[in-house]
Amino acid sequence: MLLTFEPVLARIAEEIEGLTDRGLPADYIPALAGADPARFGMAVAELDGTVYGVGEWRQPFSTQSVTKVFSLALALARKGDALWDHVGREPSGNPFNSLVQLEYENGIPRNPFINAGALVVTDQLHRITGDASGVTLDFLRAESGNRDLVIDREVAESETAHGDRNAALAYFMASCDNIANPVPTLLREYFRQCAIRASCADLALGTAFLARHGLRADGSRLLTSSQAKQINAVMLTCGAYDAAGDFAHRVGLPGKSGVGGGIIAVVPGRCTLCVWGPGLDARGNSVAGVTALDRFTTLTGLSVF
């Protein structure tokens, strides 16, 4: 049976309208603190590049940790399995900016989606390319077909001014010989990467290589099927901070959230999604976004289970 996404998205948007508590924006990043939790957008991209959307699905927003998926894919494509010598693949069970586990585990972060792990991935990508944030931005521009994607300078500067915890993570890992670049250089690239602005449509299209088992929009291969499987698996187990188990239970898809309110999700072999709602729960995930993805998999039956 042919599944039509438009009525599904319209129904989800109607249900989201009725949400009485959508959480609060990320107030520890001043440039994001003023976002309106009532805003909402959602897009679905099919493997041929067809995109469906509802709400503010073409409104750019701060991608934040969503970009960790793209930097991971680019680093893994270049470095191969040797990347996993620097970062693990296990859920952390701790807040995304926790310092505690690093000391116990000799500076090797649990997974690439907590802040410490993403710093290591960005460090490796920058060591190889000399321009980690630029390579990530160029990749998203190419996959989304939107050459107008930019790095939000105000957000990058705001994160830099309030990035002491990330600096502490980076310096500790450097003391364990797990950082190759000077820490200030790494932090600049990391904050710039997190400050990329993109819409739900852009990010749904940008994520589609994971649903195509490693193939880019132009048909070239970025990742092997095995590497694409690895990233999808880590997204499923680690992509929603320390609420990944709840996300897998409710949504049933590999996903990655960001404190800008975005969440990307993958239905391997079928489609990719992006939702945006700036109001976050206590664990840093979009309240409207998780609810919308929960309803999507329930209404369509599309999940990995």
Q: How would you portray this structure in words?
A:
- The chain is built from twelve helices and eight strands.
- The strands form two sheets. The chain has a five-stranded antiparallel sheet with strand order 2-1-8-7-6.
- With 305 residues, the protein is an alpha+beta fold.
Q: What about the largest sheet? A: 5 strands, antiparallel
Helix content: 40-55%
Kindly report how far apart the N and C termini lie.
19 Å
- Low-confidence stretches are none
Topology, please?
Elements: H1 5-17, E1 41-46, E2 51-55, E3 61-62, H2 68-79, H3 100-104, H4 115-129, H5 132-144, E4 150-151, H6 153-161, H7 164-175, H8 183-194, E5 196-198, H9 200-211, H10 225-238, H11 244-250, E6 255-257, E7 262-267, E8 271-276, H12 287-300
Antiparallel strand pairs: 1-2, 1-8, 3-5, 4-5, 6-7, 7-8
Helix pairs in contact: 1-12, 2-4, 2-10, 4-7, 4-8, 5-8, 5-9, 6-8, 7-8, 10-11
